Amino acid sequence: MLSKKSSALEKAVVELKRLSQDEETQRIYEAREKVIRDENSRTKTAIRTVKMEIAYKMLRHGTPIQYIIEDTGLSQIDIEKIRTTL
Question: Staple partner for 78: which of 16, 53, 74, 84, CB 3.0–4.6 Å?
Fold first, then answer.
């Protein structure tokens, strides 16, 4: 079993070395990684925006700040900033 894993690992290392020497493959890999990073960033921004909108609505309904902090994960500073827009 260990020899099979070792053999598979060796093959993977050889393939990785081969691919990393190919400039076009490297370019494609880097472009794909950038797309993934960009998508992750957009997702995080969207989640934060939704949390801010929820906090705004909770403040409008008179929910205590401590509950908003617990429910949204936003900081007290963030919630205070939202409160100034009411």
Answer: 74
Cα(41)–Cα(10) distance, rounded to whole angstroms? 35
pTM of the model: 0.66
Residue 8: helix, strand or coil by DSSP?
helix
Can you tell me the distance from the alpha carbon of 46 to that of 6, in angstroms, rounded to the nearest whole number?
A: 43
Write the pLDDT tens digit of every residue in 25-47.
Answer: 888 889 999 999 999 999 999 99
Distance spanning both ends of the chain, measured CA to CA: 65
Read off the tokens for 50.
């939704």
Q: Give the tens place of pLDDT for each residue, 39-70.
A: 999 999 999 999 999 999 999 999 999 999 99
The number of domains in the chain is 1
User: Domain range for residue 46?
Assistant: 2-83
